[in-house]
Each structure stands twice: as structure tokens, then as C-alpha cells.
Write a structure and sequence with these properties.
2 domains; two-stranded antiparallel ribbon; 18 helices; globular
């Protein structure tokens, strides 16, 4: 079940009504309903994979209980068991095929032939990258003494399967979400209004911007050999906006739904495309993932506490793992490496070049230049292969061809879609200014405008899924 579908709208109306109707009863009824709705939401896609969530829930619930009752040596064993189980699920379902295909390619490189028996066709469960990281944070925080385990299995299961953020985040910490599940929620009209505003803004980004840009992005990346450099750059620009509106749109909807149910989720995007450097960008983009890697990978590796060489190695590892987290393809790894190189250069030169940047490159120029750099890194992310990414980027600089913007086979004019980019960047800038003035909620005028645009000017494609479902 996806947010931008009629069945979900019906589902949400029923859930919201029932959820606050049982609020007069005790907490268990509210959490039973929440858990049942979450399992239905996920099982609607493929009920067979509910077993993975249930199994992961049982394993980490038991590990959490045994961690506080065990000796130090046994605690390490229990933690390792939890990590091996969760990472084992992730490695098998998400990366087994990648490793096998890479091994076969290596054999072919050395002129060895691999038979079809090596092939492996595994269905990737939606959201597995998100809920495995969420459950791992629970056991790790208990091991570090930051969190006490809960004995309430029902509430813990509801925490793991909480449907708004189950399949594409934000990746919540048990220290934030679990205590809210463990206490009774009270209806708050202001909170529901704020949630509805976020949902409308998320739908606007997904339906009006991301889905409108999707056809031209697919066309340009699929047929990049037929286009000139300017059109290819526009295609990369459109994907840059598409992926942000698609993913942050999902996060806004998820956070909004949670608000309407009396639960506050963490902010996942904070206007990343108005960043002036790579450090700001990763403090604003997919915040729940970047902070997860900071707390559970970068700092345990030693962070920046040891020496400069070790710090640079740790940063590189984090970016490579972040790239690999996104998918089983070399393009994601190279994308992570590209960001690592940019980050390391910034880290090593930020103090020396600080005065130079301020004198010769005002903040607005820094923002524009960095945004263009991010556009080029997204080409690697979006391409099917490294070969495609290389030739896509090369052609931008070697084959300008300023006149060809129309695909004669489907009448897609690449210049037309600049309207969506300008519209979104203007609205996003307005939203950023509102946040700086401590006004996170959209005005009623904006709410009405979004609803009007969606109803009157959009043909909603209910089959258009979210990009990050594949991760």
C-alpha cells in the first residue's frame, strides 16, 4: 500500500477514526489497533514478508531483555547475535544477488564460464533497510546503557512496525519513538492540523513536482545517447528535484500522519538544496540515516578522536557504506565515494579557504555552485551503470547541442519542465524562511492552494510508487 493511492486514503480515514475512538480505553487497545493496522499496511504489499518483521521484532525484543540480565562478556555475544541476525537479513535479501553477479563478472574477466546455477532471484522486501536499522538501534542503545528494555512486547512490536515510517523512514531511534508508544496518546486538534498541513505539502511535492518530472527524467536517462549536453544537464537537474520531492514528500507525509496520531517523528529533511557546502548538505539530507551512521558507525570506528589519517579513513568508510546502503549496484558505491572525496576536500581545506570563499564567493554563489556539484553526483546515482554515468557526464561537456530539446517519439520537451523546478524552489525557499521565523506549519491559504492544485490540475497516477521503496 502506498500513500498516493485511493486505498490508503480510505485506510487512513478508518484508522484515524478508530484510533481516537479507542483512546478512551486503556493503552493496550490503542497499541493493538496500531499494530494491527501496521501489519495490514505492510502485508497489503506482500503478506509473506510480515514474517521477517515479526521475526526481527521477537529477536531484538529478547536480546534487549537478556542484555540487562547478562554479564559483560555475554552482553557482547547477545549484541553480536542481534547485529548478525539483522545484517544477515539485509545482506541476503538486498545484496546476495549483487555479490553473486559480481563474482560471475569476475570469473568472466578471467575467461571462466559460470553456469546458470549461480543465478539467484530474490525479491527485495520493501523497507527492510529501514526497519532493520531501527531495531538495531534499540539493542545497541540498551548495550550502551542509553535505554532500558521494555517488557511490553505489544508496544515494542508497534514501535518496530509503526506504519507511517515503516517502509521509507525516517529511521527512528527507540529513545524517541518507543517512549511515545509506551504512553497513552491524547487527541490534540492543533497537532492534527499541523499533521494535515505536512501531509498536503508532502503530496504536493510527490504528485505535482516529482511525478510530473518522472517522464522526462526517465526519457533522458534512457535515451541519453540521443540528446545534447544541455538537455542532459536539464535531465540531471530534473532528477535532482524529483528525488528530493519524492523522498522528502514521503517523509513529510509520514511525519504528518504520525502527528495526527499524537506521535512526533524526527525531522528527516531540512532544505538541503540551500546548503553552501557538503557538511551542511549531510546535516540536512536524510537526517535520520546520516545521524544513524554518525552514532552507530563513525563514532564507534573512532570518529575524529584518534588522528587525522584515521579520521579521513572513518569518513570514507561511512560514505561508502552509505552508498552501499542505497542499493546493490556499483553506481551507489561510486556515488558514496564521490561524496566522500568532496567531503574530505572540504574537511581539509575549510579553515584555510574560509576567508577566500567569503571574499570571492558570497553565500548565494556558494549555494549555486554547490547545488550544481550535487546535480552531477545525482547522475551517478540515477544511471544504470558506471559506464552510462561516465558517458552521460562526458556528453554534457562535449556535445552541447543547444537546439534539440524534443523527443519526436513522445513529444517530451525538456525545456518545459523548468517550470516545475522554478515553482518548487520558490515554494521551498518560502518554507525555509517560514521555518527560520519559527513557523513550521503551512498557512491555511497554502493548504487550500495545494488541495485546489491537486484536484483541478493533476491526473494522479496511483501506480506511481516512491523511489526509496526500492532501497
Amino acid at each position: 500500500m502506498i500513500f498516493n493511492s485511493l486505498i490508503f486514503i480510505y485506510f487512513m480515514v478508518v484508522v484515524y477514526t478508530a484510533y481516537w475512538s479507542v483512546n478512551r480505553l486503556n493503552l493496550s487497545y490503542q497499541n493493538i489497533l496500531l499494530l494491527g493496522c501496521s501489519y495490514f499496511f505492510y502485508g497489503f504489499w506482500d503478506y509473506r514478508f510480515l514474517s521477517l518483521i515479526i521475526l526481527s521484532t521477537i529477536v531484538d525484543y529478547l536480546c534487549g531483555l537478556y542484555l540487562v540480565m547478562s554479564k559483560p562478556l555475554h552482553k557482547k555475544i547477545i549484541l553480536v547475535l542481534s547485529l548478525v541476525f539483522n545484517l544477515g537479513l539485509l545482506l541476503y535479501f538486498k545484496y546476495a544477488g549483487f555479490f553473486i553477479d559480481s563474482f560471475i563478472s569476475l570469473l568472466h574477466f578471467f575467461n571462466y564460464s559460470a553456469g546458470s546455477k549461480f543465478g539467484l532471484n530474490i525479491i527485495l522486501p520493501v523497507g527492510i533497510s529501514f526497519y532493520t536499522f531501527q531495531t538495531m538501534s534499540y539493542t545497541i542503545d540498551i548495550y550502551k546503557g542509553k535505554l532500558k528494555p521494555t517488557k511490553d512486547f505489544l508496544s515494542f512490536a508497534a514501535f518496530v512496525a509503526f506504519f507511517p515510517q515503516l517502509v521509507a523512514g525516517p529511521i527512528e531511534r527507540a529513545t524517541n519513538l518507543l517512549p511515545q508508544i509506551l504512553r497513552k496518546r491524547k487527541f490534540n486538534l492543533k497537532q492534527s492540523r499541523e499533521g494535515l498541513s505536512l501531509i498536503l505539502w508532502g503530496f504536493f511535492k510527490k504528485i505535482i513536482i516529482a511525478d510530473s518530472l518522472s517522464p522526462i527524467v526517465d526519457d533522458i536517462f534512457l535515451n541519453y545517447q540521443d540528446y545534447g549536453g544541455l538537455t542532459l544537464f536539464l535531465g540531471a537537474l530534473y532528477f535532482t528535484i524529483q528525488i528530493y520531492c519524492d523522498f522528502s514528500g514521503y517523509s513529510d507525509i509520514a511525519i504528518g500522519i504520525a502527528k495526527m496520531m499524537g506521535i512526533e517523528l524526527m525531522l528527516n529533511f531540512n532544505f538541503p538544496y540551500f546548503s553552501q557546502n557538503i557538511s551542511q548538505f549531510w546535516k540536512r539530507w536524510h537526517i535520520s540515516l546520516s545521524t544513524w551512521f554518525r552514532d552507530y558507525l563513525y563514532i564507534p570506528l573512532g570518529g575524529s578522536r584518534i588522528n587525522l589519517k584515521r579520521t579521513l579513513i572513518n569518513m570514507t568508510i561511512v560514505f561508502l557504506v552509505s552508498g552501499f546502503w542505497h542499493g546493490a549496484n556499483w553506481t551507489f558505491i561510486v556515488w558514496g565515494l564521490a561524496h566522500a572525496i568532496i567531503y574530505l576536500f572540504y574537511y581539509l581545506t575549510k579553515e584555510k579557504l574560509k576567508k577566500v570563499r567569503l571574499v570571492f564567493f558570497p553565500k548565494i554563489i556558494q549555494t549555486v555552485l554547490f547545488f550544481i556539484l550535487i546535480v552531477f553526483t545525482w547522475i551517478i546515482f540515477r544511471s544504470d551503470t558506471i559506464y552510462d554515468a561516465y558517458h552521460f557526464i562526458s556528453k554534457i561537456f562535449t556535445s552541447p547541442n543547444f537546439t534539440k530539446h524534443l523527443n519526436p517519439y513522445n513529444n517530451l520537451n525538456s525545456l518545459f519542465y523548468l517550470n516545475y523546478v522554478v515553482l518548487f524552489l520558490v515554494l521551498d525557499y518560502i518554507q525555509m524562511r517560514r521555518q527560520n521565523k519559527n513557523s513550521l506549519r503551512l498557512s491555511n491559504l497554502f493548504d487550500i492552494a495545494f488541495i485546489t492544485v491537486i484536484i483541478l490540475f493533476t491526473q494522479i497516477d496511483f501506480a506511481n510508487s516512491f523511489i526509496y521503496f526500492q532501497f
